[in-house]
Amino acid sequence: MINNSKEAIIFDLGGVLLNLDYDLTEKAFISLGMANFGESYSQLQQTHLFDRFERGEVSSFHFVNQLLDRLPPGTTANQVVHAWDAMILDFPLKRLQFLEELSKKYRIFLLSNTNDLHIDAVRRSLNKSVGHRNLEQYFEKTYFSSAIGMRKPDSSIFEFVCSENKLDPAKTVFIDDSPQHVEGARSIGIEAILLGKNQEISSLFD
C-alpha cells in the first residue's frame, strides 16, 4: 500500500490507466496477410525498429513502410496504422476520476513507452471516454519515450524525470504493469509497484 510519506506518483499508461489488448494487433496483422506475425515481430525486434520508434529515432512513415515490406502487395499504410493501433482500447472513467482525487494529495506524473501513432490513438480513445483529448490535464507533467529519446526500463529515464521535477526517489512511487520497468525504477531508489493483471490502481491506496 502507498503511504502518506510519499510525495509523488509516476504512472505508466498502457495496462495501468488505459486498457490494452496486444492480441488484437497480432490478429489484425494476421488478417492483413502477415501469417507469421510472431516471427516477423521478432525479426523487427532484432533490428531494434520498435525500440527506435519508441525513442523517436525513426518516423511514423519509416515505421509503417518497414511493416508494409512484410505484407502482401496492395496493403495500404492506413491498414497498417489501423492494425498497429488495434491494441489501444478504452480509458475507464473511474480511473480518470481517481487520478483527479490523487492529484489533491500527490504530485502526479505520466511516464510511457509509446510512439507517435499510439499517442494519437490514445487521444482519440480519451475523447471517446470523456469528450476531450487533453491527457495532460490529469498530470503535473507527461513524459512519452518518443518525445524525450529514452525508454523504460533504462535508469536514465527515471533519473531524468526525478531531476527535472526535483523529486526525491525515496518519496516517489512508480506504478507499472511490466516487471522490467519496475526494476528499472527501483535501481535508482524509487518505490516501484508491479500492478497485477485486472488490478485497479485504487486498490493500492486502500
Walk me through this protein's architecture.
This protein is an alpha/beta fold and 206 residues long. It has 10 helices and 5 strands, in the order βααααααβαβααβαβ. It has a 5-stranded parallel sheet. It starts with 7 loop residues before the first strand and ends in a 12-residue tail after the last strand. The relative contact order is 0.19.
- Written as H for each helix and E for each strand, in order along the chain, the element string is EHHHHHHEHEHHEHE
How large is the radius of gyration?
18 Å
In which range does the helix fraction lie? 40-55%
Instruction: Calculate the mean pLDDT score and round it.
Output: 94
Which class best fits the helix and strand makeup?
alpha/beta
**How is the biggest beta sheet arranged?**
5 strands, parallel
Oligomeric composition of the shown chains: single chain
Question: In a nutshell, what does this entry contain?
Answer:
With 206 residues, this protein is α/β, with parallel strands linked by helices. The protein contains ten helices and five strands.
